[in-house]
Design a protein that fits this description.
single chain; alpha/beta; 5-stranded mixed beta sheet; two-stranded antiparallel ribbon; 4 helices; 31% helix
């Protein structure tokens, strides 16, 4: 049996527009109404999703496109501190064509006491210009390889640079030898001239890099 309605004792005051309210003794009597309410609740979120679905896909595509664009811009503009462009190795100056076979100019250089020394009086000789670099290792190697009778001469700019007991240090303050070669002094590099006993220029090495640059010609100077 049902319990008293809203007008009876034991229930709070209910709005009159609700009408007569009957509370059954067995809750299973409300199974039909409960199933209907659950069905309505299940339908409500589906309608909401269905209403939103036409805009969900375009919105997702727009977000992905924006993120992809930002990632591309960041990759292009982000500084790359770990990379560096390798600097090209400078090529050595090439001697003017036609120097080999020409006679050594009649130049007077100066020694440590500023006394004039005729350059032609020292042939056969390997003349090393050290106005761009003292290059003691290269000078010492040339002196060790020079055959007997061949003079190794160093030519500096203002004052002679002493380079060893078997090396003749001279200076060319006027720069006449460089002017003859048309080769400017280069920092860190030494230039070599190999002159035979008749005073003829055999070869020019613009920048000495190893003994192999002049070894064969230096040996022939003693002939």
């Amino acid at each position: 049996m049902g319990k008293p309605d809203a007008d009876g004792p034991g229930l709070p005051d209910l709005p009159p527009e609700w009408g007569r309210v009957v509370v059954p003794d067995d809750a299973s009597a409300l199974a039909t109404e409960a199933e209907q309410i659950r069905h309505e609740l299940r339908r409500t979120p589906r309608r909401t999703v269905a209403a939103r679905s036409p805009y969900a896909l375009p919105l997702l595509v727009l977000i992905v496109a924006v993120l992809t664009t930002l990632a591309g811009l960041a990759a292009v503009t982000w500084p790359r501190t770990g990379r560096s462009t390798p600097q090209p190795t400078p090529a050595p100056h090439a001697p003017p064509a036609g120097l080999a076979g020409r006679p050594l100019p009649a130049l007077d250089l100066v020694d440590a006491g500023q006394s004039p020394v005729p350059l032609r009086a020292l042939v056969p000789a390997m003349i090393i210009l050290v106005d761009g670099c003292p290059c003691p290792q290269e000078v010492a190697t040339a002196a060790a390889l020079a055959p007997p009778g061949v003079t190794v001469v160093t030519v500096a700019g203002a004052r002679p640079v002493r380079a060893g007991a078997t090396v003749r240090p001279l200076a060319d303050p006027a720069g006449g030898l460089r002017a003859f070669l048309h080769l400017p002094a280069r920092p860190g590099a030494a230039t070599a001239l190999l002159v035979d006993r008749s005073g003829v220029l055999v070869s020019v090495v613009p920048e000495i890099r190893s003994a192999e640059d002049y070894r064969a010609d230096l040996t022939r100077l003693a002939a």
